[in-house]
Design a protein that fits this description.
The protein is α/β, with parallel strands linked by helices. It has helices at about 20-25, 70-90, 105-115, 160-165, 205-215, 230-235, 250-260, 265-270, 285-290, 325-330, 340, 355-365; strands spanning about 1-5, 10-15, 15-20, 35-40, 90-100, 120-125, 145-150, 175-180, 220, 240-245, 295-300, 305-310, 315, 320, 345, 350. α2 (about 70-90) packs across α3 (about 105-115) and α5 crosses α6 (about 230-235).
């Protein structure tokens, strides 16, 4: 077990599974101490009777006591209570993900907005291998919905846009994710060989969520921990986790599972960052630092030249201004990225001035 003191609010039980009711446990954790919450609450499936396959074998459906509520009103009160506790725990720039099905996600989404959360996206998890609709009376239920929300309107939040784009082969990540449900070796079994948990989420889903909206060292809370998918992926990705799970059988499976997980090395944990997230370096700072000298000549890709001035602007022919403005004027273009456009000369080689900017950024990190 590890602990962490956050803002003097007390010790966080990091990388532990708390044995308690989720609302009670959350209310005992220090306020504004959590970076991200991933919640997979009871879906309140309202199942009536057994479900059988065409060969008359019984489907192992979700009929556990924890998924049963007396009424929609009772479920709504439960949802309102755990969301209130969750929002108290989030840091000002924290965020929450909630996953659900058509049985509950609309009620949960409304409750989230009423609680003050600000919805950023809804994501459709389209299952590549869904369970068929055996009765043939409805569409095959082939997706679940995730709601991603910040703590409130205007609140900052983590979103590793470039990392998600890299994960998607250079294409902007969309809000429909095609991922398989747990099968084969990933599906955890109990001592009798049965499913250890009926709604175990795939690690691929949590991998995408955590890479997208957390950074190494962040604290991730899962108040409905189950068999520990959130904790296992968090550990692999170098995030700390706190799990809450009142069912002893699930805790036992989760503890064994997480104990066998190895954290990736620090180099592997790094993800592609947005250019906007990098420290801003004015071109004039290169001149102040003596990396470029006033009067030094810069060259464009087509051989045009401009001189560096003492105030960090350029002058060329009848044009003067920033590295971007002069480059745009040369190209008769509305804009220009001067950092990649201009080159300086050293030892007979033309080198992009962006190399000097990256040198300063490396010193700042």
């Amino acid at each position: 077990m590890t602990t962490k003191t956050d803002r003097g609010a007390g010790a966080l039980p990091l990388n532990r599974i708390l044995s308690d009711d989720c609302i009670k446990a959350m209310n005992e954790l220090p306020e504004a101490s959590i970076d991200l919450i991933f919640a997979d609450p009871p879906y309140n499936l309202q199942l009536r009777g057994d479900l059988h396959r065409p060969d008359n074998s019984r489907v192992d459906a979700v009929d556990d006591a924890w998924d049963s509520f007396a009424s929609f009103g009772a479920y709504d009160e439960f949802t309102k209570s755990w969301l209130k506790a969750a929002r108290r725990l989030l840091k000002p720039n924290g965020a929450i993900w909630v996953v659900g099905s058509y049985h509950n996600i609309f009620r949960v989404g409304s409750a989230m907005q009423n609680a003050g959360f600000w919805i950023l996206n809804d994501v459709v998890w389209r299952k590549s291998n869904p369970m068929p609709n055996f009765r043939g009376k409805r569409f095959t239920n082939a997706h679940e919905t995730l709601i991603w929300a910040s703590r409130g309107e205007g609140a900052k939040y983590t979103f590793n846009y470039e990392a998600l784009k890299a994960l998607n082969e250079g294409v902007q990540m969309r809000s429909d994710w095609v991922l398989p449900i747990c099968t084969g070796h990933e599906r955890l079994k109990d001592e009798n060989g049965d499913k250890a948990h009926p709604t175990q989420k795939p690690e691929s889903l949590l991998h995408r969520v955590l890479v997208a909206t957390t950074n190494p060292g962040d604290v991730v809370l899962d108040p409905f921990f189950g068999t520990g998918t959130t904790g296992a992926v968090a550990k692999m990705l170098g995030r700390d986790f706190i799990g809450i799970e009142r069912e002893a059988a699930y805790r036992k499976v989760a503890e064994k599972r997480i104990a066998s997980v190895r954290k990736f090395d620090n180099e592997a944990l790094a993800v592609t960052v947005s250019k906007r997230a990098e420290p801003r370096v004015p071109f004039g700072q290169l001149v102040e630092r003596g990396l470029l000298r006033p009067g030094e000549v810069l060259t464009s890709p087509r051989g045009k030249t401009a001189k560096v001035r003492a105030d960090g602007t350029l002058i060329a022919e009848d044009v003067k201004g920033s590295i971007h403005q002069v480059g745009a004027a040369f190209e008769s273009a509305p804009s220009c990225n001067g950092w990649t456009y201009w080159h300086y000369r050293r030892e007979g080689q033309n080198i992009p001035i962006d190399i000097l900017r990256q040198q300063i950024r490396a010193e700042m990190s």
